[in-house]
Specification:
This protein has an 8-stranded mixed sheet, with helices on both faces. Strands 1, 2, 3, 4, 5, 6 and 7 form a 7-stranded antiparallel sheet that branches. The protein has a 6-stranded antiparallel sheet with strand order 10-15-14-13-12-11. The chain is built from 25 helices and 21 strands. It is elongated. By secondary structure, it is an alpha/beta fold.
Length: about 750
């Protein structure tokens, strides 16, 4: 083993700036969070309106500015809490590359890698920086960079591109470029960045906010000028009524509520060891109606044991021992086989081994080669073309995952089926060889997957909540269907994709729910086909063979103890590797989005009637019926307080995109009714010279009754929480009307 860099050499590299500063992925800084929540158009408008109120000396009507400050502080606090949670959990999920320094093997944070560091790379590792192979042999997949799913063999002297990942083998590699100088940094590849998630709800709300923001200034100026045309109107009355109109038009609490609810959902999920890498991934997952499961790590624990084996030749165990002894990569299958054969078998190794085949998810086999024969261990249909031999193994499988051991003999010593063992050419690919003459079955091994104890409950949750389940696996059809049946999947229509000559994926996803012998590129095509069918698709996985599909899915979920490349490519990471938390994530997302859509109705109703009244009172020369202080009470009781409480209710109903429906059928009609009622009250009050505080009080009562009716409507069916909420709101409002100190503070008319 080489010595690697010394501590002094590392220090010199760091001093020279040849350190991987961009490797670590950060959330927003505290300063960025504070500025993002403080420097908003809403705060700017509120400050301008507050200055106007201060100018006329109506200090009591400044209550709205304290609400704006509270909104800003709540937003900052929630985002800081979410940042601390995510940063802490990212440290747990972060890949720590293995390097050799001062002759010792150690793991270091990725941002501490320096040029000329000697890394040790193996199966499942993502290559974080550019490097060159110094020793060993590996196969890499550069699909995240090139779109090509072929695995490329790399040996001494070959370049390794950052962003690719290792699918087999082990090597030592020397770092050639770090930080901004790496290939992936220059191309801004998505392999090491968080996948951008589109938020339908947030996008739509931002559009509404943008349009309202553009309308505020002209409406405000015209409304203020119109107030001065009203006979007997003082400057104080004109300014306060204009401010009241503009404050009502701003749905500032809606954006705050959305960010707060999603941030709280992120924090709650973190307690279950779920890392949400993007806040709006929660919304995407809430809309999921189809989930694709990779059997390993989801339906099963990922652990395997040897159920039994059948030897048909005296060299059977020797072949297994030899193949296992020449495998550098570890996975659940090799661990189970080594536990059974290397620790308990006394069979001698096969002599004169000239080459080896490392396991990969595409080949689905491993092997060794001598001068006269090739010994292969793996899925039978991937190591022989002999149909009789394939049928013999399949008939003996009994629903278990079955590996065959085949000895192939040819006159040239080439490998069977897929050609000879690959020799590296200039481009890193081997050439096809001559046809093998004969395959001999030495025996087979039946492996048993350990079923998750809660797998049946998880599948039942999906069934109860209208989420279709598709099982996608690299294993054989019989064993996957057996496991799927044991965990409660009802529709077991399955297909072995390795036997399909042409794939019509659109038809396949309609006809089948279980897909086996699926290659990484085929997983991606299945996801694409489901999306074309109109499904919102989530993909779970734990290995490098799942990455292509996970990147294609609307929402990707990685198992925490799986490959680091899979974790880095996903939007949600199950750090505890507990798949039973997936229903919790879906439930959390549905609760957030369904409740937000309902609460948004309250905010947008206020915006609707405030905008209509503001425009009407530009042209009607009568007093505006509200003051900032009275509207602050109304907004809190009928919008802010119930909106926040209702947004935290349990609600796992399927998301039905009710946002537009609620706007059209609830917010706008209610807003129009409130506008008309308020306008009628204003006209009557003006015609009869009703005192302003009585006029304002009657208007507030009318709006409260209509808002209360809307709140009652969206709170159906009644629950204890909703009944208590409605009772508290009514009691507080009546108290404000009739308890003298409170009544006087809000300038309400003393009825008695």
């Amino acid at each position: 083993m080489k010595e690697g860099l010394t501590s002094a050499e590392v220090a010199a590299k760091v001093q020279a700036g040849k350190v991987n500063h961009t490797a670590k992925q950060n959330t927003m800084t505290v300063r960025q969070i504070i500025l993002r929540n403080t420097l908003t158009i809403f705060n700017l408008v509120n400050i301008i309106l507050a200055v106007m109120i201060l100018f006329v000396g109506s200090y009591k009507n400044l209550l709205f500015i304290f609400i704006a400050i509270a909104n800003t502080l709540i937003g900052i606090i929630n985002e800081l809490r979410a940042k601390r949670t995510v940063d802490k959990m990212k440290l747990l999920a972060e890949q720590k590359p293995t390097v050799i320094r001062d002759g010792n093997i150690r793991q270091i944070p990725p941002e501490e890698l320096v040029e000329d560091d000697l890394m040790i790379l193996s199966l499942g590792d993502q290559i974080l920086v550019d490097a060159i192979v110094e020793q060993g042999s590996i196969e890499v997949n550069e699909s995240l960079l090139t779109g090509e799913s072929d695995n490329i063999r790399k040996t001494s002297g070959d370049k390794l591109i950052s962003g690719s990942f290792i699918v087999s083998g082990t090597c030592q590699a020397k770092v050639t470029a770090v930080g901004d100088r790496t290939f992936i940094a220059k191309l801004e590849s998505s392999a090491r960045t968080i996948h951008t998630t589109d938020s339908k709800l947030f996008t739509l709300m931002n559009k509404i906010v943008k349009y309202i923001s553009f309308a505020l200034i002209p409406i405000g100026v015209l409304l203020l000028l119109a107030r001065f045309r009203v006979a007997g109107t003082t400057t104080e009355t004109a300014v306060t009524s204009t401010v009241a109109a503009l404050i009502n038009m701003i749905p500032e609490g809606l954006i705050l509520l959305t960010s707060s609810v999603l941030a709280l959902a992120t924090i709650r999920l973190s307690r279950k060891k779920v890392l949400v890498q993007n806040l709006y991934s929660i919304e995407t997952l809430a809309r999921v109606d189809c989930i694709c499961l990779d059997k390993t790590g989801t339906l099963t624990t990922g652990k395997m044991t040897v159920h039994d084996f059948t030897s048909l030749d005296e060299t059977f165990e020797s072949a297994i021992v030899s193949i296992l002894n020449h495998q550098t990569a570890e996975n659940a299958t090799t661990v189970a086989l080594k536990q059974k054969f290397l620790k308990k078998s006394h069979a001698p190794e096969i002599k004169n081994i000239t080459d080896t085949i490392s396991f990969s998810s595409d080949r689905k086999h491993s092997g060794i080669q001598t001068k006269t024969a090739t010994y292969l261990l793996g899925a039978v249909e991937f190591i022989t073309d002999d149909k009789a031999l394939i049928e013999k193994v399949k008939d003996a499988s009994g629903g278990y995952r079955t590996l065959a051991v085949v000895k192939s003999v040819s006159t040239t010593g080439d490998a069977p089926g897929g050609g000879p063992l690959r020799e590296p050419s200039e481009g890193g690919q081997g050439e096809a060889g001559p046809v093998v003459k004969k395959d001999n079955l030495l025996g087979y091994i039946r492996l048993k997957d350990e079923i998750r104890g809660d797998a049946h409950e998880i599948i039942q949750f999906f069934a109860d909540n209208n989420v279709a389940v598709k099982v996608i696996s690299g294993d054989d059809l019989d064993s996957v269907k057996t496991i799927a049946e044991r965990v409660g999947l009802k529709d077991l229509r399955g297909i072995n994709l390795s036997t399909e000559t042409s794939h019509n994926y659109a038809k396949l996803v309609q006809d089948y729910n279980v897909f086996t012998r699926v290659k990484p590129a085929e997983k991606k095509e299945i996801i694409k086909a489901l999306k074309k069918e109109g499904c919102t698709v989530a993909m779970t996985g734990d290995g490098v063979n799942d990455i292509l599909a996970m990147k294609e899915a609307d929402c990707s979920i990685a198992i925490g103890d799986g490959a680091d490349a899979a974790r880095r490519s996903s939007q949600i990471v199950l750090l505890g590797s507990d798949f039973s938390t997936v229903p919790d994530i879906i439930a959390e997302g549905r609760q957030s989005i369904n409740n937000l859509e309902r609460s948004a109705t309250l905010f947008l109703t206020k915006t609707a009637y405030a905008a209509i009244l503001a425009v009407l009172f530009v042209f009607i020369p009568i007093e505006y019926p509200f003051s900032p202080i009275s509207m602050s009470l109304l907004n809190f009781l009928c919008i802010g307080f119930p909106g926040f409480v209702l947004a935290l209710e349990p609600n796992i109903a399927r998301v039905k995109d009710q946002f537009i429906y609620n706007i059209k059928h609830l917010a706008i009609p209610t807003g129009i009714i409130i506008s008309l009622v308020t306008l009628v009250i204003s006209i009557i009050a003006d015609a009869n010279n009703i005192p302003r505080n009585l006029f304002v009080t009657i208007s507030i009562i009318a709006v409260f009754v209509l808002d209360y009716g809307l709140l009652y409507r969206i709170s159906r069916p009644p629950t204890k929480l909703r009944i208590a909420l409605l009772a508290i709101i009514l009691a507080v409002f009546l108290g404000a009307l009739f308890i003298p100190p409170i009544r006087n503070f809000f300038d309400f008319y003393p009825f008695f």
